[in-house]
Design brief:
The protein is about 75% helix and about 0% strand. The chain is built from 22 helices and no strands.
């Protein structure tokens, strides 16, 4: 069978099967039909009969032509300010790559920490941490900034998968860098493209999460994970080469070749710092994060750091706008039409015998490890975040705690597989890490992250009044 036909058959079959199943008691016909369209759209995003944006457009169209929603309701997602925050962040991230500031930051950390392999790994993680607040595409951070640097280091030490020398240094650095990206994505609302989707869905259930609140909640468990994960990998998956003076020398040479910071780099750095200030103090200033991002984008455009062609050519941003708007719209109306409250109440009744802490722990672990069945964080968040949050609230889990933990887990579960999220195929595809090692280390580190975020994180969240 033609490989392009099978995804269409699976997607359409999903739509028709759910559509014609009689809706349960307490669920309206429109809500049930929207669920069919929504699930079919998610299946289409996973199976990819067309690119994600095209599948999303088809989903929007089907909601209208079937009479499930009006055209105004179906297009309402495009007016959502959280969506525009992530789109603006994509544009701003282009400035880091275009000006070379992202690579300069990587080489600075490499020069400071790169004389030992473990220090080099921490340098790559530190680079990712600095870039994460302003580059929501973890694929752009890993593939566009870190991966070329990692390949250069592996080449210096003649560590190549082709000749079986990948364990010299390349495998350790690749695996550590990927696991660091999983953590930094969880530390900032703008650290991963699907994070604002979780915030919007939480808002539909009355849970308000600002950029500053997200960062405050994540800072302690995030830093602990970033400290522990490279060290644990160093012990469990050690590189052969432990000393790397040549790496520090390479970084110094690259910085010398780059010369002094350019005018555009200084403007990019100033804009980045300004954005962090506006995002952190947005509530005090009565300034939404999307408005702050617009201010940053205007500075980059007016100063010439970015051109309008740069904006038009940022395909990732426009693609995100389309699929994000479609999924937010469908998920919001599933809640408005009563399906999500019905689901939360129904499943919650099954867990009433458990105290809220035990019930929520069970829900969280199911949510986390169900990612073995997903090849996209976006698909996972859009299909499971809202119903799991609804169930958590129905068993009396503190609302902010439930919303944040599920949002953090929506990044941390990326540690599991070689297909879990955007950077995974890039890093795994380089051939440095065997699949068995990737899964084994991913499983171990997933447990470590869960312990840190629910243990130390739970104590921190109690201290700052989240629960």
């Amino acid at each position: 069978m033609n490989k392009k036909i099978l995804p269409w058959i699976v997607t359409c079959a999903t739509l028709l099967i759910i559509w014609f199943i009689p809706e349960p008691n307490g669920v309206s016909t429109d809500a049930w039909h929207l669920l069919a369209i929504f699930v079919a759209t998610i299946v289409g995003i996973i199976t990819k009969p067309l690119p994600m944006g095209a599948v999303a457009i088809i989903g929007i169209t089907v909601t209208v032509i079937t009479g499930t929603l009006t055209i105004t309701e179906s297009l309402s997602g495009f007016s959502n300010r959280v969506i525009w925050l992530i789109v603006m962040a994509f544009f701003i991230s282009r400035g880091f790559i275009k000006t070379g500031l992202g690579q300069r930051i990587a080489y600075v950390f490499m020069k400071l920490l790169g004389r030992k392999t473990l220090g080099l790994a921490y340098g790559m993680v530190a680079t990712d941490l600095v870039l994460a607040p302003a580059i929501p595409s973890i694929t752009a951070r890993s593939g566009g900034v870190l991966f070329p640097v990692l390949r250069s280091i592996a080449h210096i030490y003649q560590s190549h998968p082709e000749d079986g020398t990948q364990r010299k240094i390349g495998a350790f650095l690749i695996k550590t860098s990927f696991q660091g990206t999983v953590i930094t994505g969880a530390m900032f609302l703008t650290g991963m493209a699907a994070n604002p989707l979780a915030v919007k869905l939480a808002g539909d259930l009355g849970v308000d999460i600002s950029w500053g609140l997200w960062a405050l909640a994540a800072v302690v468990p995030g830093f602990l994970s970033l400290l522990c994960v490279p060290f644990v990998l160093y012990k469990l998956y050690p590189p052969v080469i432990k000393e790397t003076p040549e790496a520090a020398a390479l970084a110094e040479k690259q910085l010398n070749d780059m010369g002094k910071m350019s005018r555009n780099e200084y403007i990019m750095l100033f804009t980045f710092i300004l954005l962090l200030v506006l995002w952190i103090f947005g509530r005090v200033l009565n300034l939404h994060s999307a408005t702050a991002a617009l201010v940053g984008l205007i500075i980059l455009l007016v100063s010439g750091v970015l051109t309008w062609d740069d904006i038009l050519n940022e395909k990732g941003a426009w693609n995100t706008l389309i699929w994000f708007a479609a999924l937010v719209m469908m998920a919001s109306y599933l809640n408005t039409l009563g399906l999500i409250p019905w689901f939360g109440e129904t499943v919650g009744q099954l867990l009433t015998s458990l105290p809220w802490m035990g019930a929520f722990l069970l829900l969280s672990l199911i949510y986390f490890y169900s990612h073995y069945f997903f090849a996209s964080s976006t698909a996972h968040v859009s299909s499971m975040y809202l119903p799991f949050l609804a169930v958590a609230l129905s068993v009396n889990t503190p609302a902010l705690l439930a919303a944040l933990v599920l949002a953090f887990f929506s990044n941390l579960y990326g540690s599991l597989t070689h297909y879990s999220m955007g950077p995974a195929p890039v890093m795994f595809g380089s051939g440095y890490v065997e699949m068995g090692d990737w899964w084994k280390m991913g499983g171990v580190l997933s447990l470590l992250n869960i312990l840190i975020w629910l243990g130390a994180g739970g104590l921190w969240w109690k201290l700052i009044g989240i629960w």
